[in-house]
Amino acid sequence: MFTRPIAVIIFYLMPIMLAASSPSEWDKLFVLAQQHCIRASQLERTTILGQPLNFEDKVLVVVKEQWPQSHMKNQPGTLICLYDKRSGDTEIQEAVSGMDQQTQ
Q1: Which residue of 3, 8, 23, 81 is surrounded by the most CB atoms within 10 Å?
Q2: CA–CA distance from 74 to each of 13, 79, 103 (Å)?
Q3: Vertex 57, ends 65 and 49: CA angle to 5°?
Q4: Is 22 part of a structural domain of the chain?
Q5: Is residue 2 included in any domain, yes or no?
Q6: Structural domain contains residue 5
């Protein structure tokens, strides 16, 4: 008796639920996370390594760069960035030095 109204409600809500997690929405989120992480790195020559990783409330982005400080002599560096989906805040940490090396 109540199954038909519930089925109708689900049918009409389905496009709304799907739109919230469409590929274009994920792409927008990942681009936003990358932009925030590049800005948070405060460096000019940055490259995003790989694809962002999606977690429940954060997006992980790996940023590769060259350190501009004279004592660093333009050495390559890798940063791990967490972008908070809810607040838009970023947290950056330098990755371990082994990540700068290419694996063969």
Answers
A1: 81
A2: 53, 15, 21
A3: 20
A4: no
A5: no
A6: no
Q: How confident is the model at residue 88 (pLDDT cuts 50, 70, 90)?
A: very high
**Domain enclosing residue 52, as ranges:** 29-99
Residue whose structure tokens are 């590049």: 38
Residues 6+ apart with CB under 8 A from 80: 60, 61, 62, 63, 92, 93, 94, 95
pTM: 0.67
* pLDDT bracket for residue 16 (50, 70, 90): very low
Rounded Cα gap, residues 5 and 12, in angstroms:
11
Burial of 54 (0-12, 13-18, 19+ CB in 10 A): middle
Q: What angle do CA 11, 17, 21 make, to 5 degrees?
A: 145
In a domain, 8, yes or no: no
Identity of residue 18: L
Beta-bridge partners for 90: 83
Number of structural domains (the chain) is 1
